[in-house]
Write a structure and sequence with these properties.
The complex is a heterodimer of chains A (407) and B (217).
Chain A (H helix, E strand, L loop, with lengths): L1 H10 L1 H6 L11 E4 L7 E6 L10 E7 L7 E7 L22 E6 L11 E10 L2 E4 L3 E4 L10 H23 L9 H16 L3 E4 L8 H20 L3 E5 L2 H17 L11 E3 L4 H15 L3 E5 L5 H11 L3 E6 L5 H7 L2 E4 L1 H11 L2 H33 L6 H4 L7
Parallel strand pairs in A: 9-10, 9-12, 10-11, 12-13, 13-14
Antiparallel strand pairs in A: 1-2, 2-5, 3-4, 3-6, 6-7, 6-8
Helix pairs in contact in A: 3-11, 4-5, 5-6, 5-10, 7-8, 10-11
Chain B lengths: L1 H22 L5 H39 L4 H20 L5 E2 L2 E2 L1 H32 L5 H17 L1 H6 L2 H37 L14
Antiparallel strand pairs in B: 1-2
Helix pairs in contact in B: 2-3, 5-7
């Protein structure tokens, strides 16, 4: 009797009590073309479930053609691959926040071709139980515009508009106040000192190529420096690491001498190439500093580890040194060893400051409007994010996403 | 002539500048291929431009040797080293190793270039010490603040400092994560705005002095 009761319990009630909750297919599963990509990938989305846990696995099975068999292409724990704040902007989010999102990129194991339809299904597995989702089909296509970056484009266009408006305003009223930049005021002093001492001036354009904005700024400042040097009839030496920058600087200097009314004073070999190797260049320039003892050294553009090797040698020779760089990691070395340092944006503002052309000065005012806007957004965004955390709401992400840079 | 020297470069700058600014927003493979191709073209142009650089190098040092200006011996060393390296490079067919054996070219690189580069880089340690000495002399209120901050960071970063004053670790972290990061970000924001503004000025042809000459030419 007892044995019969135990058997009955095992076959009915016991079995029912021991069984884990039955698996259900993933809700809302669908496959879609990955938004805002270059193609060759599919996105899989499905709803999050309270039953998701690390022991439950989700397998992705896909098939290239309807006649072929499905094959497993990926596997994840069920409690992973959630959409988090910051993954997508709200205006181009393919699935609700907190739901599952998997990007299936083309691979050797499972190549994805654009324009071809693929069937995908999920297998949810936990212990001995497993359940399949419905089959969903989609094709991959490359996108012509990244809608996640539409906010970035709008701000870029707005900033362009502000700059153009500032230039127009500066043309109408050219008396724009510019704060004093000691490093640029000292340019005249440095050139005058070199002239008095009868020593050359050394001008470096940094380690960047012509595609670097800081190198372009350095060549622009070189033009202004060369005009003054031409007036004083001093020797200007510009050693280079990049032959293209050298060719540009030759043209800039030649025109500067023509504008200064001293085309005869221009020397073709003022600009010369040394090498593109970082430390060989540094050794050569240090040698020039020690042998020729320039009275003024200019370090404009972007720099790396060579910055201190150059400026400390220059400081040792007693030269007046003016640096200007946007390489923030090298700024401490320049500030320490140079008499004047143009920090970051001051390098870009130098051509406007030295030439005082209304059109160029106007752009500085435009930049200031841009910075004021960024400062406002920083304060406003910090306040909104803080309030959002305190009251535990994600509603402010609708505003905060507008100011984020999404890829 | 003015068209070739001024208008055509400005038109090319405007077209390429606008196209590659928009390229950032276009994920299509055509856009990706365009930037890859332009990068390759830039490498090819750089290769040809290197001839300009070498010609400049030969010319400058040839003149120095010819006129026997002070220090012309260095120019002679440069000529010997450069021509010697080229000759050995040709002799070794540009290979640094053949069947596991080092060629003369490889020997030159390993036993001259590498130690020379290492020497230059190692000098940095001594230069940092002398630059730090100059910066940390408490000649003004700002320099005194810098000195105090530097001492604190050094204490917080070395084991002995943390052993003697464990609280310096927290102060160091605060200095780096709050004050230093805030200033660095402020500089980076300024740099970014300035960079975008200068790029726009170049694309729109407002800033054209990098082409040589003034605005009205």
């Amino acid at each position: 009797m007892i044995v019969a009761s135990i058997l009955l319990l095992l076959l009915t009630g016991g079995a029912a009590l021991a069984a884990p909750p039955s698996l259900v297919p993933p809700e809302g599963f669908r496959v879609l073309d990955t938004p805002n990509d270059a193609g060759k990938s599919l996105s899989l989305v499905w709803k999050a479930s309270p039953a998701d846990n690390k022991d439950r696995k989700v397998e992705v099975w896909a098939v290239e053609s309807p006649s072929a068999d499905f094959k497993k292409v990926a596997e994840y724990p069920a409690n992973t691959r959630y959409v988090k704040p910051g993954d997508f902007p709200w205006w181009s989010r393919p699935v609700g926040q907190g739901d599952h999102y998997v990007k299936l990129s083309s691979s050797k194991a499972f190549p994805i071709e654009d324009g071809r339809s693929y069937a995908v299904k999920l297998l949810v597995r936990e212990g001995d139980q497993e359940v399949w989702s419905d089959v969903s089909q989609a094709a991959s296509y490359p996108d012509r515009f990244n809608t996640a970056q539409v906010n970035n484009l709008i701000f870029a266009l707005a900033f362009t508009g502000i700059l153009l408006a500032s230039i127009a305003a500066a043309r109408r009223n050219p008396h724009v106040h510019l704060r004093r930049i000691a490093g640029l005021d000292a340019v005249e002093e440095a050139i005058g000192r070199s002239t008095e001492m009868g020593r050359p001036i050394l001008y470096l354009t940094g380690s960047g190529g012509m595609s670097d904005v800081s190198t372009i700024a350095a060549t622009v400042i070189l033009g202004e420096v060369a005009k003054k040097v031409a007036h004083y009839d001093t020797t200007l030496k510009v050693p280079h690491r990049d032959p293209i920058v050298m060719a540009v600087c030759q043209e800039v200097m030649k025109e500067a001498y023509v504008q200064a009314g001293r085309p005869d004073a221009y020397k073709e070999d003022s600009n010369f190439f040394i090498t593109d190797d970082q430390f060989s260049y540094t050794a050569a320039v240090d040698g020039i500093m020690l042998r020729e003892k320039p009275a003024a050294n200019f370090f404009m553009g972007s720099y790396f580890a060579e910055s201190l090797l150059l400026t400390e040698t220059g400081a040792g020779t007693g030269a007046i040194q003016i640096a200007g760089t946007d390489s923030d990691h090298q700024l401490p070395f320049f500030v320490t060893t140079c008499d004047y340092t143009l920090i970051g944006e001051e390098l870009y503002a130098a051509s406007a400051y030295l030439s005082r052309e209304p059109v160029l000065v106007g752009t500085l005012r435009g930049q200031d409007f841009g910075k004021a806007f960024i400062m406002g957004v920083l304060v406003f965004g910090t306040a909104l994010a803080t309030v959002g955390v305190v009251v535990q709401t994600e509603i402010f992400h609708y505003v905060l996403d507008l100011f984020k840079d999404f890829k | 002539m003015i068209f070739l020297k001024r208008q055509l470069p400005l038109a090319i700058t405007f077209f390429m500048g606008t196209a590659f600014a928009l390229q950032y927003y276009i994920p299509h493979p055509v856009s990706e291929d365009a930037i890859t191709n332009v990068s390759k073209w830039m490498q090819i142009i750089s290769g040809f431009a290197l001839l300009l650089g070498i010609a400049s190098l030969f010319h400058v040092h040839a003149v120095k040797i010819q006129r026997q200006v002070p220090g012309w011996g260095y120019s002679l060393v440069l000529y010997v080293a450069m021509l010697g390296t080229i000759a050995v490079g040709f002799w070794a067919h540009g290979e640094t190793k053949v069947n596991g054996a080092q060629t003369g070219f490889g020997w030159m690189y390993d036993y001259t270039m590498v130690p020379l580069q290492g020497t230059m880089f190692s000098i940095l340690a001594f230069f940092i010490a002398s630059a730090a000495y100059r910066a940390f002399r408490a000649r003004s209120r700002e320099a005194s603040v810098l000195l105090a901050a530097a001492v604190m960071v050094m204490m917080g970063r070395v084991p002995l400092g943390q052993f003697l004053a464990p609280w310096t670790w927290d102060v160091t972290q605060w200095l780096l994560n709050v004050l230093n990061s805030a200033v660095r970000r402020a500089i980076l924001i300024g740099v970014s705005m300035g960079s975008v503004a200068l790029s726009l000025k170049i694309i729109l042809g407002i800033e054209r002095s990098y082409l040589g000459g003034g605005k009205d030419q």
